[in-house]
Amino acid sequence: MCTDVSCTHASLPQTDIDNTVRLDATAERADNLVLCPQCDLMVKLPEIHEGDKAVCPRCHTTLRSLWVEPVLQPVICAASALIMMVLANLFPFINMRVSGIYNQIRLIEIPQAMLSDDYGFLATLFVIFVQLIPVFCMVSIILLCLKVKMPYRVKIIMGRVIYLVKIWCMVEIFLVGVLVSFVKLMAYGDIGIGASFLPYCLFCLLQVRAFQCLDRYWLWQRIKAAPPLPKNVQVGVSGLKQGLRSCPCCMAILPADEKRCLRCHTIGYVRRPNSLQWTLSLLLTSVIIYIPANILPIMVTEVLGNPSASNIISGVILLWQDGSYPVALVIFIASIMVPTLKILAIGWLCYEASGRGKDLNRQDQEKMNVLYEMVEFVGRWSMIDVFVIGVLSALVRMGKLMSVYPDVGAVLFALVVILTMIAAMMFDPRLLWDRVNNKEGA
Questions:
Q1: What is the DSSP letter of 409?
Q2: Contact 111, 118 (CB under 8 A)
Q3: What angle do CA 77, 80, 84 make, to 5 degrees?
Q4: How far is CA 93 from each of CA 125, 133, 181, rounded to the nearest angstrom?
Q5: Out of 113, 156, 234, 258, which residue is the most buried by the measure of CB atoms under 10 Å away?
Q6: For the whole model, what pTM was predicted?
């Protein structure tokens, strides 16, 4: 069994170190050891240099990365992103001209338009996912990386929130939704970009880069050193068999019966309580909502006073008939294929984790782990259609000539995306590896 980790440059392919010797870590420091959050393997971290990363030898999850200039890079990217966000809200974002009628909107006016149509839920999602969460995370990155003097409680709240809400930052998804909106609107009039469009694109790239350069393990070591090891540990053995658990927030190694982390004060358990029950309950709820979300209209288009409602499927068909094949495929994949496949994949993962599936060997488990990571990554992209509706409803306000309004299907579809994302978060991937651990005695 591998008991060390591979240490590679960030831009190079990963290679595993084959080491079958199980080490007694009596003399090891807490900051040299980590329990893999995906497979629960106790791993000894090697000494890594700037530009390198350490990965789990079993499931290949990145455990630690050290970027060149680990303080300067995220701080500069986060500060620049905040400047771009201010500029993106000050000036016109996009504009449209139809039959001599001109309309332009600023970024901040998109949720206002949805509020005026009594769709406060969609407006709230836009403000939270596209503006508030990204801005809070950028501010937190700057303050924590620069070690600004703050109460320790404030520091741990920022550190916890950054990684808790990171998945809900949907800036890049909104930007793709804007580009899809352009293609849809080109058939009706002239579309232009305002002075704030480029700053928003830069904000999107910079905030993604800021997250990418920030390593969780490094950040928490910077906030406070890891607590001392509770007992002698063995590298290459699961934490469950040693009576240990990993903090889901700061990755500290704690006794299994220690509910509150000594460093970040996060409540945690050896395995997430009732993980499969919560996951399946959320999954079943999303399936129930997904049916009317595809049948009911998500958008109403009013042309010359004649309203026309459309649902997700009819929108894809219309785009295909108009010759916008790439956009039709994007909407079909993001709004129909991805939610359906995600629901099936989560159901399959729950089935295997419950022990009812076939016996899994190491190779099978690695494939299941890749499936879980894909489910976590792609699920949020289904919000593209919701953001498209938000942009269209804010920009296309030409009176009786042409107007677009959201409808109840958009709310239901947004709920489906949110519920499936929470279901994936509630699933504990270590339950899958427990079957392999029991088989191999790890």
A1: H
A2: no
A3: 130
A4: 19, 20, 13
A5: 113
A6: 0.84
Q: Are strands 299-303 and 402-406 parallel, antiparallel or unpaired?
A: antiparallel
Rg (CA), the chain: 24
Strands (E), 253-362: 253-255, 299-303, 306-310
Average pLDDT per block of 10 residues along the chain, 442 residues long: 40 34 45 86 86 86 87 94 94 86 87 85 91 94 92 92 90 90 79 92 94 90 86 85 90 89 89 91 94 90 79 82 78 86 91 74 75 86 88 81 85 93 91 69 52
Alpha carbon distance 356, 351 (integer Å): 6
Domain spans of the chain?
1-66+225-257, 72-217, 275-437
End-to-end CA distance of the chain: 9
Q: Would you say 387 and 309 are in contact if contact means Cβ atoms under 8 Å apart?
A: no
**Are 367 and 358 contacting, i.e. CB atoms less than 8 angstroms apart?**
no
Options 1.10.287, 3.40.50, 1.10.1660, 1.20.140; CATH of 275-437: 1.20.140
153 in Cβ contact with 263 (< 8 Å) = no
